[in-house]
Amino acid sequence: MHCITRLRFKLKDEGKANTDALKNMEGVITVMKSGGQYQVVIGNHVPDVYKTVVELGGFQSQSPVEEDGGGEKGGLLARFIDIIASIFTPILGVLAATGMIKGFNALFVTFGWIDATSGTYQILNAIGDSLFYFFPIFLGYTAMKKFGGSTFIGMAIGASLVYPTLTTLTGGEPLFTLFTGSMFQSPVFITFLGVPVILMSYASSVIPIILAAWFGAMVEKWLRKIIPDVVKAFLVPFFTLLIVVPITFIVIGPIATWAGSLLGQATLFIYNLSPMLAGIFVGGLWQVFVIFGLHWGLVPIAINNLSTLGSDPVLATTFAASFAQIGAVLGVWLKTKQQKLKSLSIPAFISGIFGVTEPAIYGITLPLKKPFIISCIAAAVGGGIIGATGVKLYMIGGLGIFGIPSHINPEGGATLAIWD
Question: In order of start, what are the domains of the chain with their CATH numbers?
Fold first, then answer.
């Protein structure tokens, strides 16, 4: 698979990869080994390289691929990062695109260019909300693929969670209330075969569908072993959905939603202990996290915060990092006498303006060491200021300068202030 700048391979034996030859290959910036993945850093044209590699290697397959025990498993953290990266990487581009549209839509209203009641606003808002509102459907596809199940079953599970009619069933008097007097107090409006169902809002949610997809993949694999081949095509999805969807609504969904809310509150509690220190820490180390792939640990937390809290202050502290990086690159371009380094600095600087900093990191600042350290210090200063002033992220949008609209509260009316 690939992300914005890297080809990501899962190799059975990384020792067979000719790393030195790859690093010296024209067009390859560097090679990284992180999170159980062998990563070849290409740059902004990685989608074209990916297509060529897939065609020449014959790797592409629409059917689920079972884990065969090959490859380096790594520790729990490496495996967690691998799962999160595999689930979120395929949709990051569209997620950023829809977030940008929603952000610019809020900006247009703020500037008075369009009215929030106009058809233009409503259509742009529908585009901007499309992926995030129906997130469980998209994550159902990518999560099921990662866990080795049928992707369309994963999408059906996700679609069940955001089925519009279910949201209309929470009006009126509940049948009864569960967990009365506790933080988990929940009214019950419907039952399934006599079992109480706690209806939650799963639009934009992350944790419930990932757990449901994992459970669905396990159930599907078990059913494939016991159902005769002649009827597998329809009986496997039939029984998988009949088993997984009700259990998700009755058990997995509520527990996962409560866990997501607790995670959001815990994140906010830690952040509020000292927003400035949190900004210094996350902002200053963000580029280090990116190098080792550890940033994937914060991405789902931020998305969870957006769905449960409506905003995220943690990932917002990383906003200054890309600008700190291109500032260091600009300094290198101005001071260096090496022609090759000068020629590399210009495209790396332009790429960094739009938030893609891998060419700058691997091609220029990291090899030179001091510019990278300076950029981390500058990012820490920027992160500290962002934390101290309470800047929040209201949507996952574009990177670099395109990330500015993501920090504008859509409910903020005519104000341009990005902090509370």
Answer: 6-74 (3.30.1360), 134-262 (no CATH), 272-407 (no CATH)
